[in-house]
Specification:
By secondary structure, the chain is mainly alpha-helical. It has two domains: 11-51 and 338-430, no CATH class; 55-334, Glycosyltransferase (Alpha/alpha barrel), CATH 1.50.10. It has helices at 10-23, 28-44, 67-73, 84-103, 137-154, 157-177, 181-184, 201-204, 232-249, 254-274, 321-331, 360-368, 373-385, 411-426, and strands spanning 45-47, 53-57, 65-66, 109-110, 130-132, 230-231, 276-279, 283-286, 289-290, 296-297, 339-342, 345-348, 358-359, 396-398, 401-406. The longest helix has 21 residues, at 157-177.
Amino acid sequence: MQTNTYPLRSSVEEHLEKYEKALKRHSEKLSKLYHSCFLHTFDALSHSEDGAPNGYVVTGDIPAMWLRDSSTQVWNYVRFANEPAIGAMIRSVLERQFRYICIDPYANAFNETANGHGHVKDVPLKDPWVWERKYELDSLAYPLRLLYGYCRATGDTAFAERHLPQVMTVILDVMETEQHHFEKSPYRFSRETDRYNDTLHNDGMGEPVGYTGMSWQGFRPSDDAVDFGYNIPGNIFAAVALGYAAELLQGCAPTLAARAEALRGEILDGVRQYGVVEHEKYGKIFAYETDGLGHYTLMDDANTPNLLSLPYIGFADPAFAEVYQNTRRFVLSKDNPYYYEGKCGKGLGSPHEYTGYIWHMGLSMQGLTSTDPQEMRAVLDMLVASDADTGYMHECFDPDDAYTFRREFFTWSDALFCEFAEKCVDEGLF
């Protein structure tokens, strides 16, 4: 893979120089780590024959574009969107994401062309543009967040007015349908596999759910099947994204804006009624999933959106402030079945891969949502010490041996690390 091939503009170069200089006060290694991770997504961009970005972004060592991952990968560059080259790149990513959603709003990952690559034995058969058809609510929310960030950075509301009404109609149709999954949904998913979390049971429909006002999803942000149909962080993120969309649609499609606001309210009412449970040790906390029938899961997963990330994804309802703090204490404790400790650190993991391993994304999100300088410094030290001298973040690593890790090329994780490193500088840790 070539390195740093994207034409940088002065503002990007100045930004890098500013933060690299500040991070050197911690260590030379941290400064270099930040530099390589910040530029890594540029290397994951595909370009047309004329050299222009075509919007296709691979997330790592898998030749596919995830709607979620790609949104996060380019998020750090949104602030430079007034630079012509950067703005064109962001728009190309959004245009491709919107085109993909209109092709199949239930798919999570796509091919660069209609080549039929990916999981070809899943049932039902998928469109040749689709790499994988695991329905994940956050896959529809992340592009809306990216669009909102782009519009705020540039003032380019014309771009939103041109693209958003069509894609938002598709998104709302799906989210509203999935409020009544068993009654109205056409979505089914089955995969012949020995991994229980790679397929939906009950003839591809998933386990039974009751009506809650929330929107059902088949899979988590980790690409693992849900235990119960209503993923709480996914629904909260959807509500946040619906608010962004409603604001952008107000002037050009007020009827759609009203639909988005109504759905947002129904989802949050569902979270309030079904997504908060009483824990004997921590008090009121968010469940990770629920089915609206009295069952729920108490855990958190390193993949974002997760419960830990709620402030990061823009959820700032003061009515839930204490619930979040209680939840955060639970998530970052051994009471969470996916929180691990070892000789090299401690942090959030995932049932997705390598159970017992710490995920760099989980550490970065812990730092991004922390208000404690001591905690932030400790997390940063763990991240710097666990790159296995590769110069990049990974998916996960052995808490007793940081040189045993999975995925050297994983730019979603790189991007989150860079956000956290910049936060450490901005809040005066160095």
